[in-house]
Amino acid sequence: MIRFFDGENWEISPAGGLTGEAYMASSGENKLFIKRNSSPFLAVLSAEGIVPKLLWTRRMDNGDVLTAQKWMNGRVLTPKEMSSEQVAGLLKKIHTSEPLLSMLRRLGKKPVTTAEILNRLAEQAKGRTETRALRQAINFLKDTAELAEYPKKMVCHSDINHNNWLLGHEEKNLYLVDWDQAVIADPAMDLAMLLYWYVEEDQWEDWLGLYGLEFNRSLQLRLIWHMVAMTLRFMFWHQEHAEMKKIILFEKDLLWLNDYAAEILH
Asked: What is the CATH code of the structural domain delimited by 76-264?
């Protein structure tokens, strides 16, 4: 048991997540979501209504900083729900939020360019078995990096998985959580991930309309560029963790994306 308040004992249990820094604290009927050493960015996300409300921040005797958020009785979105207008609206709010951008800048984050993404992926590709699909993908990223560069960088979540979207119990409040990989980049980074994973290709234009964008040739190139980059990023990660089934799926994705990229360039 841990004592957060005088006279009130809280039982702590792991709340999942890759970092092992998230916990559920419960005392009677009360529940809190506790995170250890989370970024000051959390306070701005809470103020903007993008994550469940931040209740308090405490520095412990050992130097750790704990944050407590309201425990949300809700559920994660299903893959089908990711194409909803509500998701498009929250993502647009995130991508146009000046307070979020200002805070990430204060935390020392620098805008990420296509050239930097390309260089990182090209480095990661070294020493791996060079398949035709991998070579074709890297060449596409190289040939079009300058064309796909977008000057207006905003805050991107960079892991738009449906498990990171939480819907409140009454299905009114939608939140996007797990901001550890947040970057300042082209919003197309997030849009590409969401469209490729959750929206049928023939519905891309309609979904982008919900978000507030016209699906023109320039946007199409930015989206496919980030789709290819994202696929390589995840493929390399699964290779490093020897997850063969996932590797095969991402290699299959890469073949389709390479064909799509070749089409839009001609």
From this structure: 3.90.1200.10
Q: How many CA atoms lie within 13 A of 113 on its CB side?
A: 10
Compute φ and ψ for 112, nearest 5 degrees. Answer: -95, 130
- For the segment 142-175, what is each residue's pLDDT rounded down to a tens digit? 999 999 999 999 999 999 999 999 998 765 789 9
pLDDT on residue 6: 44
Catalytic residue annotation:
159
pTM value is: 0.88
Which region, left, alpha or beta, applies to residue 21 given φ > 0 means left and ψ of -120 to 50 means alpha?
A: alpha
Separation between Cα atoms, residue 162 and residue 175, nearest integer Å: 11
7-35 exposure pattern, b = at least 16 Cβ within 10 A, e = fewer: eeebeeeeeeeeeebbbbbebeeeebbbb
Strand partners, 2: 10
Domain ranges for the chain, please list them: 2-71, 76-264
What's 2-71's CATH class? alpha beta
